[in-house]
Structures are given as C-alpha cells and as structure tokens.
Amino acid sequence: MTTRKPAQRPGDGDEPGVRARRLAGQVLTRVAQDGAYSNLALRHALDSAAKEPSPLESADARLVTDLVYGTLRRQRSCDSLINRFTMSDPPPAARSFLRLGAYQIAFRADIPAYAAVSSTVSAAPKRFRGLCNAVLRKVVGSPIEFHDEGDRLSYPDWIIERLRDDLGDVRAVGALEAMNDPAAQVTRDDGYSQDPASQMVVDLVGARPGDLVADLCASPGGKATGLANSGALVIASDISESRVHLLAGNARRFGEGRVLVSRSDAGFPGLRAGSFDHVAIDAPCSGLGVLRRRPDARWTLDSASPQRLSELQVSLIKAGVELLKPGGQLTYSVCTLTARESLGVDQVIEAELPELEPLEQPGDPWEPFGRGSILLPQALGTDGMCLFRYRYSR
C-alpha cells in the first residue's frame, strides 16, 4: 500500500509533457470510443506529430508509446482507482484521460505526482479538466490498493481463471504479471526485429542447408526468413492479401533469396504432397502468451476463442502432414498458454494421426507440457509459447 502526495509545481509557464499526454489521451479515446487498434492509432498519431512544424522529440514519442500501451495494459487497475471517486460513468474521452493520469500515479513512480496530475489535466479537453483534476487529486491522496486480484492484475476474469486452470496458480499469476511489462525490442543479426521466443522456435525446427520447408502461416515472415538463414529453401504462404504483401516485403529484405512467397489457405496449401523435409505451422491462436505486445487484445478477445481456434489448429496440422516426406518433421507452435490450444490439440493428433511421433523435448528454458513444451513469459521475459514437434513415421 502506498500513498503519493502531490509536490509543488515548479515555476510558471508551459509544463513539459503536456503535448505527449494529449496525444496519448487522444489515441486512448480512439481505442475506447471507436474501437481503433492501438498500434495503428498510435502510429498515425506519431507520424502526424512528426510532420508538424515542431516535431515531437524522440523522448516524448517514447513517452507517448509507454503511456498508451501501459494505460491499456493496466486499464482495469486504473478504472478501479478512478471509480472510487466518480458518481457516474464518465464519457469515453474523460475516462481515457482519467485512466492516463491514474496509470502514471500508480505505475510510473519516476513521474512526479504534480506532472501526473497537472500535465494530464492540461492535456485533457477543456470541458473535462475540472473532473480530471478533482478525481486525479483524490487518487494521488489515497492509498494505491485494489479490491481483488483481477483489479490488481488488470485482466478480464475469464483470462485469469483460464490460465489458473491450465497452468496452476503460481505459474499463471507469474505469466500474467510478466505480460504487464512492456515488450523489449530484440533484433536478429540480419536486422529483423523478432522476439527471442520466436527465434528459439526457428532453431527448434531443425532445418538444415538444402532442406525444403513449408511455412504455412508465415506472415509477417520472421520465422520464414529465420529458416532461410539456416540455408533451407522456404515456401512461405498466408491467406490474407495484405499479410502476403507484408510477408513478401520481409522475404525480399531478409530472406537471402531462399523464401518463395505464395497466397494460400493453410488448410488447403496447394503444395505437392510428400515433398517437404519440414512443415512449420505457427497457427492462428488466442494470443494469450503475447498480451504484453498486444495491450488492447486482452479487452477484445472472447472466452470462446481458444475452443474455436483449437478446431482450426487441428485442421492445419492435418493438412500439413500430407506435405511431409517419410521421416520429415512437423513443428506446431502457438503464442498462447491455454491447454485447449496446446495439450488439447496434441490429444487429437495422438488419437487421429499416430504416424506423427513426438520428438524429444528441448529442455530449459522450455518446460515439459504433455508431449510438447511451454515457454512461460516470466522465464526469460519473452513472449509465451507452446511448442509440439513431430516426426512423420511413414
């Protein structure tokens, strides 16, 4: 429990950071009011600010990014702090700036209380400044404490319950806490930005020079280009035209001429059966292992998505196995932590595709997870992943 008291404002004149907070609040309002994707709304705001006569300083651009993503991650926590001092639900724009201020007060100890309050109030639309000032000053003057674990962790109840059921309480809470931290930017030797968990999956595919690899859900191309860097020839495909366009661009830049791109449905890949040494399926999933990287996804996902997507995932594996040579390997990975999309999928594979024999589990930092492995986000500060590797015995 902590209590923060507002310090005296230093001097007169414009406060630093008001512009950054105004941009952050506008992005948050677009997300809350219009259903905009936070990454696209933020990029548009920063690009527009860069074109103004007085461009945003790089430090302020980084502040805007943290304020937007951090406030979205901690949205439920912020609402819990705000709601103690509001009589009715504020309009979306007012709530966005209230959340923005509460995030700084509760979770940015490096920002003085006077800046968290006064700069945010100055950035808010004029008609909401009185409300924001009154509520945020009460937040500053009160203990930072939460009614329940859901408010503290800042996730929908269904996500907390699902991961506790699937991982156990200690591992689930550790994963949820880890995914409230910002994602670090990690760059491969070739310049491609890719989370270390995905890089580890590429290495565990085990492709060698001269191998033929089918990457069936390949966009944006991180795994496909990583596999090509091993010396393999990669046929990389995706179903969406826009995603194939992104994939093709990255293949040109990072694929060393060994990535061939096609547009196809992974369930009907249109490739020659029995001709591939490896099939890699980074399947569409609920994404409950990458919520630090997709801060608004926790509020838009529905509880039925793991079950719905697991059925798709099984169908993709069944399509992928048809492409393998005898003795070929299939690697199935998902950036989620649910049992339904990992253990549940493997149970179907074990029952219906006995010719897919599980390979040896990779070991630390991966943990055994049924016949496969799981990488928890708290292990190394990476994305969370589940991985299953098989050899085709026919």
Outline the structure in words:
It is a single chain. The longest helix has 17 residues, at 18-34. Strand 2 (233-238), helix 13 and strand 3 (259-263) form a beta-alpha-beta unit. Residues 5-14 have low confidence and may be disordered. By secondary structure, this protein is α/β, with parallel strands linked by helices. The protein is built from 17 helices and 9 strands. Helix content is 47%, strand content 13%.
Report the span from N to C terminus.
Answer: 61 Å
**CATH superfamily membership of the largest domain, which one?**
Vaccinia Virus protein VP39
Number of domains: 2
> Mind telling me the CATH class of the largest domain?
Alpha Beta
Order of helices and strands: HHHHHHHHHHHEHEHEEHHEHEEEHE
- The class by helix and strand makeup works out as alpha/beta
| CA-atom Rg in angstroms | 23 Å
What is CATH's topology name of the largest domain?
Rossmann fold
- Quickly give the CATH architecture of the largest domain: 3-Layer(aba) Sandwich
- Strand segment tally: 9
Précis, in short:
The protein has 394 residues and is of the alpha/beta class. Helices cover 47% and strands 13% of the residues.
Key descriptive features of the protein:
nine-stranded mixed beta sheet, N-utilizing Substance Protein B Homolog, Chain A, elongated, 17 helices, single chain, Rossmann fold
What is the topological layout?
Blueprint: H1 18-34, H2 38-50, H3 58-73, H4 75-83, H5 92-107, H6 113-123, H7 129-140, H8 149-153, H9 157-167, H10 169-178, H11 196-205, E1 212-215, H12 222-229, E2 233-238, H13 241-254, E3 259-263, E4 276-282, H14 297-300, H15 305-321, E5 324-334, H16 343-352, E6 356-358, E7 367-369, E8 372-375, H17 377-380, E9 385-392
Parallel strand pairs: 1-2, 1-4, 2-3, 4-5
Antiparallel strand pairs: 5-9, 6-9, 7-8, 8-9
Helix pairs in contact: 1-2, 1-3, 1-5, 1-6, 3-5, 4-5, 5-6, 5-7, 6-7, 9-10, 11-12, 15-16
